[in-house]
Amino acid sequence: MKKIYIGKTALKTQRNGCKHPKRSSFHDHKDDLRKRLSYTTHKLEMVEMEFDSTRQYLETELRRAQEELEKFTEKLRRIQSSYAALQRINQDLEDKMHRTSHHHEEEKRALRGEIIVLNNHLMEAKITINKLREDNDLYRKDCNLAAQLLQCSKSHYRAHKMSELEAQGGGLI
């Protein structure tokens, strides 16, 4: 592989007046390489500008996304705080409902006990009333029998007793 010298060496040979056929091809090659370098440099500058604009755009988008993330993070924090507060309220309400339910169950049991006691008293009262009615019927029958007996025999005792009863304001019906 041959080394190609560009720059001062090539210029010196031209000044000396020596003309080489390879020199013009080197010169053409050199110009072609310079054009390619210029074109590549230009493309590189364009890519660099595009890279810079893309980087700026992405940085702007990143800032916007970070701001949105901060907003959503704050919203999430508030939602979590509200959720925790609602859980506490819900737990308090559940506890209150449980206590109220337990209280009502105890009250219900107590009322059932009272109903049983009152039903027992009612049954006893009915039995007592029935017993008193039976006794009353027996006493009425005894009184009627006694009245009939007194009406049947007209004794001095009966007249004496009748006058006493009439004087007291009572009488037999």
TrEMBL record:
Lineage: Eukaryota, Metazoa, Chordata, Craniata, Vertebrata
Protein name: Uncharacterized protein
Compartments where found: Membrane
GO cellular component: membrane; synapse
InterPro entries: Tjap1/BEGAIN (IPR043441)
Keyword list, A-Z: Coiled coil, Membrane, Phosphoprotein
Membrane topology, from the record: Peripheral membrane protein
Regions annotated as coiled coil: 55-96
Organism of this sequence: Takifugu bimaculatus
Transmembrane parts of this sequence: none
